[in-house]
Design brief:
Layout (H helix, E strand, L loop, with lengths): L1 H8 L1 H34 L14 H10 L10 H4 L18 H13 L5 H8 L3 H12 L14 H10 L10 H4 L18 H13 L6 H7 L4 H12 L3
Helix pairs in contact: 3-7, 5-6, 5-7, 8-12, 10-11, 10-12
Bound molecules: heme C (HEC) (2 copies).
Length: 242
């Protein structure tokens, strides 16, 4: 659009010259695109180039870091809290198994930049670099999800209503719209919630509400409208999703 309107603007001036330069520009562009395509297979034999800001993930290295940490760099083993394969044993520590790569990476960066504050994880995140983050996120995303169950029969209906339909009267959208009908989330933006500990989920909703966690405009707005009773109900319901 922009190209053609520009060209028509100058039509009266030097149509011939412009057409020629357009062709030259275009063919130059095509050649460079083509060159890239053809270069790819040849480059595959050489070690993969590390694109700045987007390290190539090494799943085995991610597993090693998750399981053993790296004492030489002060990285504590994640497994101690997040459990074998990211299936943590208690609700104070979130399950990370099968969580989406981009979400895990974003959260670790948010602990570093302070938009998500937590006395434990801020320290942990400070010790890992971009390559570690890419590795560990790739490893965790490949683990089997860890299932849970809803505990409170009295609030399941309320929780289910909020999750599936939202609360129109309070302007609360259905959680399922973004976190998916089965809580699997939608990569890359919307995290998996199914099976997560209710205690952890409820805590996060209160952190979004009170501003301790301010790394999502969407979730801050939603949590601001949820009461304590609604938070407990929906968190318990989500724990049983699968
Ligand atoms: C001492 C316990 C502990 C250790 C060790 C630990 N974590 Fe955590 N982690 C936590 C706690 C507690 C939270 C929840 C913090 C909050 O409320 O924000 C958390 C949250 C997270 C989250 C966010 C999860 C989500 O669903 O948003 C990620 C990602 C994470 N940890 C990754 C790691 C990685 C990677 C390591 C190892 C390098 C690690 N953690 C080591 C305790 C720990
Ligand atoms: C418009 C999309 C959208 C809707 C609707 C939505 N969420 Fe979210 N939710 C997000 C996004 C995006 C994130 C990731 C935030 C981040 O970047 O840390 C998130 C994160 C969360 C987290 C943190 C997960 C973790 O592992 O720490 C919880 C808990 C959560 N949402 C609960 C809910 C509940 C409960 C509802 C319904 C009342 C809901 N969400 C509706 C988009 C949405």
């Amino acid at each position: 659009m922009l190209q053609s309107s520009k060209i028509s603007k100058f039509t009266n001036l030097r149509l011939g010259f412009l057409t020629l330069s357009a062709i030259v520009l275009l063919s130059g562009f095509m050649t460079s695109v083509g060159a890239e395509e053809h270069a790819a297979p040849a480059a595959a034999a050489a070690p993969a180039p590390v694109v700045p800001g987007k390290p190539k993930a090494d799943i085995a290295a991610g597993e090693a870091l998750f399981t053993n940490g790296d004492p030489t760099r002060g990285v504590v083993a994640c497994i101690g809290c997040h459990g074998a394969n990211g299936k943590s044993a208690v609700g104070t520590w979130p399950k990370l198994a099968a969580q989406h790569t981009a979400y895990i990476a974003k959260e670790l960066k948010n602990y570093k930049d302070g938009t998500r504050a937590n006395p434990v994880m801020t320290g942990m995140a400070a010790t890992v670099n971009d390559q570690d983050i890419a590795n560990v996120a790739a490893y965790l995303s490949k683990q089997e999800p860890s299932l849970g169950v809803a505990q409170d029969k009295a609030t399941i209906e309320l929780g289910q209503n909020i999750y599936r339909a939202g609360m129109a009267s309070k302007g609360i959208p259905a959680c399922a719209a973004c976190h998916g009908p089965s809580g699997a989330g939608i990569p890359a933006q919307y995290p998996r919630m199914a099976g997560q500990w209710a205690e952890y989920t409820a805590a996060q909703l209160t952190y979004f509400r009170d501003g301790t966690r301010k790394n999502s405009v969407q979730m801050s707005a939603i949590a601001a409208k949820l009461s304590d009773v609604e938070i407990k109900a929906v968190a318990d319901y989500m724990a049983g999703l699968h």
